Amino acid sequence: MSIAQALPASSRGGSRWLLLGSLALNLFFIGIAVAIAVRGPPPHSRWDRNVFVRVERLATSLPQADADLLRGAMQANHDAIEKAQDDYHAARERIRETLRQDPFKIEDLRAAMAETRKARQAYDQEIQGVFAGIAAKMSSAGRHAVANWRTSKTKSKNR
Asked: Is cis: bond before 103, omega within 30 of 0?
């Protein structure tokens, strides 16, 4: 007597469904893996700390005249923006350095954090000043594109 004859008919049918389900599940996962490999990473999937890179990405989504306006304003204020950006990044690094200190001093950390807040405000004022200066000159479509633009980091974070 074979094993198949020894098992009840309902048990043999159940194992067939189990095999079929397992095969379907494996094909599903293989399909997902192939789709991810073929599609590749989304463009601009990495958030860049450099404001000039982010603004250039924004400019590519604007009507040409508005993009030129934005690029011109960024170039005209390049040195001030770059200094504010560098000061802000340096202040953030001082927080990290303070956290690594042994012995740790909370007063140093608070001072570094206050310096970072001040540097961030100066950085924001430079960038926001550029946008405030060109907003009235931009087309309605350009202003709406700026208002609706999100970096890929922000998009994935808000989903």
From this structure: yes
